[in-house]
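To make the argument concrete, we let one protein speak, a sequence paired with a row of structure tokens, as a model reads it:
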Amino acid sequence: MTAGRAHVIIVGNEKGGSGKSTTAMHMAIGLLRSGYRVSTIDVDGRQGTLSRYVTNRELFNQKLNRDYPAPTHHKAGGHAVHGMNDAEMTAEIERLELLIEGAAFESDIVIIDTPGAANRLSFTAHGYADTLITPMNDSFIDLDVIAHLDGQGINIKGPSHYAEAIWEAKKVKAQRDGGSIDWVVMRNRLSTLDAFNKREMEQALAELSRRLGFRMLPGFSERVIFRELFLVGLTIMDLKEAAGGAPLSRSHLSARDEVTSVIEGLNIPPIAQDQQTATA
């Protein structure tokens, strides 16, 4: 990891309920526990789920006098962007750019959680991505976020508005620093589909990945534990410490393995040797 050049991860999907904030928080804590310095930015000013997650973690630490690692957190778009005039939006975009650039200077990894709706702030964030993670529930209904399908849901008619926005973000990224965006579609809740639908989804996604230039990773299964941990600000990556030496259940071990597998699949650059020495 080059000093002063953080790896920026955007978690984006223009559909709510896909698990963006859960993904962002688990990536942040997993990478923190791997030795990276991590900053997070919440661009979803309306929902603010990632901000609440981080606040819950801070409160948990204070209440129980614990020291679970937390990212350096920032919040952008603190109010409804749809009501802004052009001058207000321009100022908000400039503030977001300063947040990203400042976080990139002080961290190894910057993780940005974006809203489930298109707006200029979200597009600005996407233009900084080194890695773009699009969590998606594994169903044809949710597949519509990246492609328009025919009435039967198996023939691809064309890219969605979101996919077209990503192409534009790639151009912005290339102009800014000559870099590229590694677009990763993370398939969540795989176990909720029957075998036939799974095969149909895999075929559609394989075709889309060739057309649109993304790669796929298996994501998180549907587990109650993810929702329960949010309430106290913990993640599945904290359970070994929280258990105090007690063995984890098979389900919890599987959930932790899912998160670890996603982090490994992102191919994040390793920490520079000089920083490893400094933080040892």
Summary: The mean pLDDT is 87. The longest strand covers residues 131-137. Residues 86-106 form the longest helix (21 residues). DSSP finds eleven helices and nine strands in the chain.
